[in-house]
Amino acid sequence: MKLLSSPMTFFWKRVYPTIWLGGVALFLVFGVFSRAGFQDPIFLVVPLIMLAFGTILFKTLVWNLVDAVYDAGDSLVIRNKGRKHVVPLSEIKNVSATMFMNPPRITLRLANPGELGADVRFMLPRRFFLNPFAKSKVAVDLIERVGRARRGIGADAGGN
Fold first, then answer.
1. pTM for the model
2. Which candidate in 92, 96, 104, 135 could, as Cys together with 124 as Cys, close a disulfide (CB 3.0–4.6 Å)?
3. Is 159 helix (H, G, I), strand (E, B) or coil?
4. Does residue 134 fall inside a structural domain?
């Protein structure tokens, strides 16, 4: 099985938010236990706003990504929260790629939402392109293969 999602997913989902939110929380703790926090409330208000903003941002952009997506030919193997799910390509209604978001991602809309929900999002591996508007080869290939699977055309007939 070939890994389609980024190997950096763990870093972006677990390590980076811990460092960022932990740093802001540490700043807040220093503001509370120093005289500056009580003399000027900005030392308490700004970290609280940053914690709220960061939590909302991570929840909408990072924490909703699945841990790993593997290509198994006519299906995708999705690992999330220690569980493995097999999704046939014919069960995917839509594939959309968002390249101008950090991290870049693919969203799969499932025909029959189960434990994973209606949308499955995963982070694309980063590639260096001289053309910033270049399409992801992973996304283009997945869109074509899902289209063939939904039309009932086998992998042999599709040229794979």
1. 0.80
2. 104
3. coil
4. yes
